[in-house]
Fold this sequence. Notes:
Blueprint (H helix, E strand, L loop, with lengths): L16 E12 L2 E12 L3 E5 L6 H8 L7 E6 L2 E3 L4 H6 L2 E4 L11 H5 L6 E2 L2 E2 L1 H14 L15 H13 L5 E5 L7 H16 L3 E5 L3 H7 L2 E6 L2 E7 L5 H9 L17 E11 L7 E11 L3 E5 L6 H9 L4 E8 L2 E2 L5 H7 L1 E4 L3 H5 L6 H6 L7 E2 L2 E2 L1 H15 L15 H13 L5 E5 L7 H16 L3 E6 L2 H7 L2 E6 L2 E6 L6 H8 L11
Parallel strand pairs: 3-10, 3-11, 6-9, 9-10, 15-22, 15-23, 18-21, 21-22
Antiparallel strand pairs: 1-2, 1-4, 4-5, 7-8, 11-12, 13-14, 13-16, 16-17, 19-20, 23-24
Helix pairs in contact: 13-14
Amino acid sequence: MTAVAEPVSQSITRGEVVLRAEQVAKVYGGTHALRGVDFDVKAGEVTALIGENGAGKSTLMKILSGVEQASAGTVYLDGEPVSFSDSSEARERGVAIIHQELNLCQNLSIADNIFLARERTRGGMVDFSAQETEAARFLERLEEPLNPKTLVGDLRLGQQQLVEIAKALGEEARVLIMDEPTSALSHHEVQILFRVVRDLASRGVAIVYISHHLDECLEIADTGIVLRDGLVVASAAMKDVDLSWIVTNMVGREEGALYSPMAFDAGDTVLSIRDLVVADPDSPGRLAVNGVSLDLHEREVVGVFGLMGAGRTELLEALAGRNKVLSGQVLLDDEDLSNMAVSERIARGLILVPEDRQRDGLVSSLSVGANTALAAINDFVSRFFVSKAREREAVTEIGAQVRVKASGLDAPIGSLSGGNQQKVVISKALLTHPRVLVLDEPTRGIDVGAKADIFSLMAKQARVGCTVLFATSEAGEVLHASDRILVMARGVVVAELDPRKTTREELMALADTSSTPTKNEE
C-alpha cells in the first residue's frame, strides 16, 4: 500500500508514550471543564476517548492540539514539556486534529482545501498541478475517486468528510486526533477509513479516536479511556470490554435504559405515500426512490433503516418538499402535498429535521433563540412587526421541553455542543406544531446521553398524537426507538418489521444490497 504518512522516528517503538497530559485542568469562568486529567497517547496505537457531550473530550483535544491552553497541568511531547501557542505550532511539531465540524471552504476546490495555508510552491508561485497530484493520491487511499479540481461545495456531506480526512493525512502527523471522523460516512467508507487508520498505526502514528459510534471504538481502538464531568473515570484494553461497559461508565446507566418506550397504540392514518418516484439529485438518470408506498399513523414512531445510497434521505426530503417528486402522491389528511412548496407543507403540519444541521438546519450568524424561532416566525408577527416578547416566551418554553443547554437565548449558536445544536434544530421544528415530524439521522454526531433525550422527545411527541418518521443507518437505534421498521435498499422498501421480533443481523442482511436502480430498471 502507498503510504499516506511517513513513519515516526525509528527511536520510537510501538506502545511508547508520544504525547502525555499530566494533571491537566481547564476552567472557563466558574466552570471546570477538566479536573486534573492524565492521558497518554502511544505510538502505533489507537486510543479511543469516550464520553458524553460536556464530558471534556473536545477541551482536552483542543489543549493537546494547541487550540487552547490548559489552566493547570502539563503536556509532554516525547517526554519534554510543551505549550503550543496555537494549532499551527502543534502541526509543525507533528500533532494534527480532524475537527468534528467540517472546516472547509465551500468555494475552493478539493486540492485547494487540502493544502490551504501550506501550499506547494515552485519558483515562488503555487504549484497547482503538484497539489492536485498529491490530493488525488490521498483520495485514492480513501478509495474516493473524486476530481481534485471539484469545488467542495458541490460534494455531498460524506465526501466533504473524506476531504477533511485527506487534509489531515496530508499533514503527515506523528499524532493524529480524529474527532467524529465517520459521522457522515457510509458503512463502506467507514471500513475504508479503518484500513487507513490501521495502516497509519502500523507505521508508528499515535492516534486518538473520538466517536459517538461506540461500536466503532470497540472495533478500531486498542485502548479505551472514558471521561465524565472532566475526570477520567475508567480505562481498559478494548479487547477486554463491551458496549455495556462503555455506556455504564459514560452515563451510569445500561444501554437499554437510554431508550423511552414507544407509543404502540397507533391511530388513524395521517400520511399516505403512493407510488412515489424521486430522482437522485447527485446522479442524473438514476432513481433514488422507486415506487414507494406506505401509510403512517397517529401516535407511532416509524424508523426507516438503510445503508448509504438506499434512498432514505431522498425519500424524507421529497416528503418535505426539498426533492422534486417525479410521480406519485404525498397525502396528508387526504390532501396532496406533492406540488406544494416547503413552507406550505410546514403550514399544513409536515416538517423535516435535516441530516446536516450545520448546512441545512442552522444559521451560524444567528443566536440560539433566533434559530429556534425561524420556522415559526410568522406566528409572532402582528401588524408587520415581530412580537419579541411572544417569540422569547415560546422559544424559552420549547427550549425547556427539549432540554437545550445554553447560556441564554442570545448565545451564539456556535457556542453550543453538537448535541445541543441538534436540539435547537428539533426545537425549531416543534415550534411549528407539526402533525408529522420527519427526522433524518437525528442523532448524527451526538453522544448517547443526547440521543436518549432525542428518543424520549420522539416518544413523547407520538404519545400526544404526532406522527414521527425518522431515518437512520444505526441498527441499534431503529431497533430500540421504533414502533415499526421500514428497511430500504436500492430505492425501495424491501421489508416492514416488528422491532421486538427482529435482530441486527436480519436488518443488515436486508439492507445490504447494491446501488440504486436506473430509470430503465423500473
